[in-house]
Every structure is written in structure tokens, then in C-alpha cells.
């Protein structure tokens, strides 16, 4: 039996492969994931700025699974025994498998890095973030913690918060606290310069310091960032605790260690892709593009594993990937290796790519 754990970006490609080519010979396939839809994070900043509806960035996992003939179990994995080949779920099920693949994404780090406070909304899981923002009263002073591409885009999105959202009466004041690593670590100087300029132009304050709650107040170094009525934690991914506890090979941060075939280093009948995985041969950023590009490779290798054959394909990440950062004001900034570009055309390109990706799977789920 093929068990897919998590309806993430890579497993969407695996489901699509099964829709096109059928369930791998003789196998039963099951997807365990907590919700019927995957929320595509790339469109969330645009949703904040009123460019997309709330459902604009949803992938219909249930529809894809139905079309693929894959059984869908709406539940959450909380334990893995890689030797006995069993997964435990929050709903109390024990699911046995022959070959398993994990694409459950990363977990939030807000509480661990900032401390506990009801004003914190973590961006992971992204669907929880969207639900909480949609339900909250209009914020007036927002702090976004995290200087990566996600934090930057959310700062722009929140600064341009749509009136239709949270009844936003006027544009919130936004501070972006990047941490000591500064703005967009790992991006080219030309990209950082453009983003810094756009932040300044929109009146978004940037603080290159770590933030933390101390005695109920949000502090950056020795200075206070109060008053703040919303603190968005965009601090990267943490590995799920159940993974490390399982005894499967992980990296030092607890992510499932895989080779270039996206196969576990310690258990060859287990595969993983996306934020939950860490490549042993190459350090890769936790980023949706890698989950998306690894998907077809994973699909081919899962087919081979079920047939008792060695892996067919390797995922060779490109050295440079295109990142398109929505600035929330009708424009966007492109980053490709050392190159940067900016303009309305960049946002139009971003919308075309994002909506094209969603439409491809919507058509497949409907067909
Ligand atoms: C605001 C924002 C914007 C971003 N924009 C971009 C971008 O433009 N480009 C880019 O490359 N990256 C972007 N990223 C990063 C990107 O979101 C992640 O790298 C990407 O979502 C990782 O995909 P994934 O498949 O690993 O996991 P996810 O997309 O997180 O999917 C995980 C799936 O597994 C399910 N799941 C979770 N836990 C369990 C469990 N225990 N058991 C079973 N199922 C489970 C979830 O419900 C979900 O369906 C952005 C991030 C943020 C926060």
C-alpha cells in the first residue's frame, strides 16, 4: 500500500501523476491530510492586499484524490514507526504501509522564538493564518517578525490590507523586524536594495534586530515595539517533533534526511519532499519551488519503489530560482540569482504563474 502523508505541493504532483497514469500496479493508495484543500501560500499576500478572493489560492485535494482513485483520510499524522511501517494519527488510527511518502510541510516557530502571547499569529500552517486574519478586527499596528521573502511579502500585504478584510478602516502601520540576519538573507544585493526602497516608500519601518516578548511586551533588543495589536511570525519552518521521535534519519534540525531521489537515507521504503525534508547532498532553502519541482521526481520514484525497482529519477535543484515578491501596491519585485527587476509587469507575471498553477490542478480535479 502506498501511503501519502500530507497534501503538500509535492503530493499534488503525485496525485496528478496517479490521475494521468493510474494507481501504481496492484497497489492501494491512501492520502492522510487534515483538510480537503491545500492553501497555496504564494497567493496569500495578494489576498491580504485584496487582489485575490480567499478561495483563489486553494488546491482541491479531495477532488484530485477522488479522480486519482486515492482514498482520502482527513486526519493528521502524529507518529511514525519506520521499521514496522506504521503511521499513527491524531484520530487514533494506525495505518500500515508498504511505501510511504511525507509532504507535511514545516511547523511554526513563533511561540518558540518569540515567546507566548495571544497577539502572535504564526504563518504556519498557512490555512490557520488565513482563518485567523479573516476573523480578526482591523489591526492598526502590526509587527511582522522574519526578514525572509515570506515576511517581506506579508509586511507589504498587511500594509495594503484590503478594506474588505477585517473591515480595515485605514492602512495599518507595519514594522518589519528582520532579526539580526537582516533583510532577505541569501538574496542578491540588488534585490535587497529594491525591497528596502519599496519598504521605505510605503512607510514600513525595518528593524534589523531579533524580537521577543518579555514581561508581556514585545521588545527588539532593549527597545519596545509596543503598542502592537498583531504580531505575525514568519520565522521559517520547524520540523515536527514526531519525526525525530520516530528514529528515522533526520538532519540536526529534525527534518527527514533524503538523498537526490527524495528517499530516506535510513529507510529506503520512505520518501519525503517539501519543507519536511532536508537533502543530505545539498543545502536547500525551505521553499515552495523545491516542493513543486520535486513532485514529479517523487511520483516516478514512488512508482518504482512499489514495483520493487530502484529509484528512476533525481531532483537536481537549479542554482537560481525565480522569486516574485508582491509589494501589495499593484507592483512586484523579481529576484533571479544576482538580478532584480520591479514593476507592474512583474506582478502580472506572478499572477499568471500562480493562477496557472492553481488552474492546472483545478482542471485535473474536475476532468
Ligand atoms: C506568506 C508566504 C509566502 C510564500 N511564498 C512563496 C513563494 O512565492 N514561492 C515559494 O517557493 N515559497 C513560498 N513560500 C514558502 C512555501 O509556503 C513553503 O515552502 C511551501 O508551502 C512548502 O510546501 P510543502 O509541500 O512542504 O508543505 P505545505 O504547503 O505546508 O503543505 C503541507 C500539507 O501537509 C498537511 N499536513 C501538515 N501536517 C500534517 C500532518 N501531521 N499529517 C498529515 N498532513 C499534514 C497540510 O495540511 C498541508 O496540506 C511562502 C511562505 C509564506 C509563509
What secondary-structure arrangement, pairings included, does this model have?
Layout: E1 2-5, H1 9-21, E2 29-33, E3 37-39, H2 44-48, E4 58-60, H3 61-68, E5 71-74, E6 77-81, E7 86-89, E8 94-96, E9 99-102, H4 110-114, E10 120-122, H5 126-135, E11 141-145, H6 149-159, E12 173-177, H7 189-201, E13 205-207, E14 211-214, E15 217-220, E16 223-224, E17 230-233, H8 241-245, E18 256-258, E19 270-272, E20 277-279, H9 288-306, E21 322-326, E22 332-336, E23 339-343, H10 344-366
Helix pairs in contact: 1-3, 1-9, 3-10
The protein binds flavin-adenine dinucleotide.
Flavin-adenine dinucleotide (FAD) binds at residues 5-10, 32-35, 38, 41-42, 44-45, 76-77, 103-105, 123, 125-126, 150, 153-154, 234, 274-276, 286-289, 291.
Amino acid at each position: 500500500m502506498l501511503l501519502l502523508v500530507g497534501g503538500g505541493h509535492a503530493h499534488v504532483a503525485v496525485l496528478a501523476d496517479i490521475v494521468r497514469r493510474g494507481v501504481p500496479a496492484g497497489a492501494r493508495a491512501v492520502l492522510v491530510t487534515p483538510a480537503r484543500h491545500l492553501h497555496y501560500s504564494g497567493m496569500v499576500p495578494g489576498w491580504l492586499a485584496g487582489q485575490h478572493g480567499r478561495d483563489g489560492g486553494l488546491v482541491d485535494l479531495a477532488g484530485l484524490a477522488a479522480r486519482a482513485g486515492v482514498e482520502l483520510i482527513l486526519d493528521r499524522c502524529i507518529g511514525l514507526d519506520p521499521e514496522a511501517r506504521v503511521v499513527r494519527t491524531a484520530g487514533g488510527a494506525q495505518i500500515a504501509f508498504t511505501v510511504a511518502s511525507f509532504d507535511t510541510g514545516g511547523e511554526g516557530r513563533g511561540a518558540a522564538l518569540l515567546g507566548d502571547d495571544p497577539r502572535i499569529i504564526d504563518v504556519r500552517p498557512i490555512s490557520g493564518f488565513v482563518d485567523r486574519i479573516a476573523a480578526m478586527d482591523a489591526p492598526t499596528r502590526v509587527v511582522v517578525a522574519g526578514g525572509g521573502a515570506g515576511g517581506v511579502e506579508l509586511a507589504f500585504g498587511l500594509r495594503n490590507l484590503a478594506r474588505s478584510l477585517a473591515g480595515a478602516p485605514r492602512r495599518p502601520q507595519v514594522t518589519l523586524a528582520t532579526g539580526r540576519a537582516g533583510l532577505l538573507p541569501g538574496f542578491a544585493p540588488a534585490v535587497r536594495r529594491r525591497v528596502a526602497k519599496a519598504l521605505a516608500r510605503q512607510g514600513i519601518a525595518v528593524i534589523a534586530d531579533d524580537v521577543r516578548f518579555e514581561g508581556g511586551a514585545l521588545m527588539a533588543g532593549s527597545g519596545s515595539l509596543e503598542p502592537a495589536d498583531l504580531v505575525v511570525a514568519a520565522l521559517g519552518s520547524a520540523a515536527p517533533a514526531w519525526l525525530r521521535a520516530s528514529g528515522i534519519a533526520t538532519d540536526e534540525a529534525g527534518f527527514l534526511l533524503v538523498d537526490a531521489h527524495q528517499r530516506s537515507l535510513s529507510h529506503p521504503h520512505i520518501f519525503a519532499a517539501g519543507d519536511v525534508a532536508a537533502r543530505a547532498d545539498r543545502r536547500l532553502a525551505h521553499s515552495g519551488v523545491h516542493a513543486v519541482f520535486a513532485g514529479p521526481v517523487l511520483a516516478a520514484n514512488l512508482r518504482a519503489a512499489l514495483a520493487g525497482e530502484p529509484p528512476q529519477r533525481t531532483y537536481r535543484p537549479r542554482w537560481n530560482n525565480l522569486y516574485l515578491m508582491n509589494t501589495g501596491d499593484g507592483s512586484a519585485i523579481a529576484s533571479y540569482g544576482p538580478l532584480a527587476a520591479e514593476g507592474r509587469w512583474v506582478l502580472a507575471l506572478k499572477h499568471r504563474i500562480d493562477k496557472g498553477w492553481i488552474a492546472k490542478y483545478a482542471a485535473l480535479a474536475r476532468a
